[in-house]
Amino acid sequence: MPDVHLIDHPLVQHKLTLMRRKDASTNSFRRLVGEISMLMAYEVLRDMPTQEIDVETPLEHTTGHVIDGKKLVFVSILRAGTGILDGMLEVVPGARVGHVGLYRDPKTLVAVEYYFKMPGDLDERDVVVVDPMLATGHSAIAAVDRLKECRPKSIKFVCLLTCPEGIAAMRAAHPDVPIYTAAIDRCLDEHGYILPGLGDAGDRIFGTK
Ligand code: URA
């Protein structure tokens, strides 16, 4: 599939499988979201620009490469994106953070925006949008639609789980945005949940059900 990156590293798959278990506690689910997100960051940020700097080791002078975290913006789709955001910030603590607040209308499943706050100068920054579940694609598409108005340098989309319907919708609306995921599940149910999935990611991260 064009520009869909399935991150099948054994550590990522291991953590995802533990998260799927219905008896995983809120504590363990939240910890696993953080850990899997740190691991996924490796793949998502593989092509991040670096700059060469001088370094004095205890023995001699050399050069090395560092990233400029400030050039990177993690955009969390509220509320479930927060889980991934926390993990990604562990590995790139200098990154900037944006938030998009969207809720799913339970009848139409359409995404309605209630909050949008981004760092300035997005045209100089690479954006990584995070949301655990790419299901109908409504939230992801609405978030990227809105972000594109700010003309960021680039946009990537990261989720833990998706399904053919979510990928198709996102591909149709935003073919230029690569998708990174730990799994592509079978399908959506009639309520817009991914099957077999892991349930409601927000409720499981925050223990609200
Ligand atoms: N959002 C979730 O939290 N879970 C799904 O399965 C689909 C959308």
Automatic annotation (TrEMBL):
Uracil binds at residues 194, 199-201. InterPro entries: PRTase-like, PRTase_dom, Upp_B, UPRT, UPRTase/APRTase. Binds 1 Mg(2+) ion per subunit. The magnesium is bound as Mg-PRPP. One of its GO terms (molecular function) is glycosyltransferase activity. Residues 7-208 form the Phosphoribosyltransferase domain. Coiled coil: none annotated. It comes from the Bacteria. Pathway: Pyrimidine metabolism; UMP biosynthesis via salvage pathway; UMP from uracil: step 1/1. It catalyses: UMP + diphosphate = 5-phospho-alpha-D-ribose 1-diphosphate + uracil. Its cofactor is Mg(2+). NCBIfam families: PRK00129.1, upp. This is Uracil phosphoribosyltransferase. It comes from Tsukamurella soli. The lineage of its organism: Bacteria, Bacillati, Actinomycetota, Actinomycetes, Mycobacteriales.
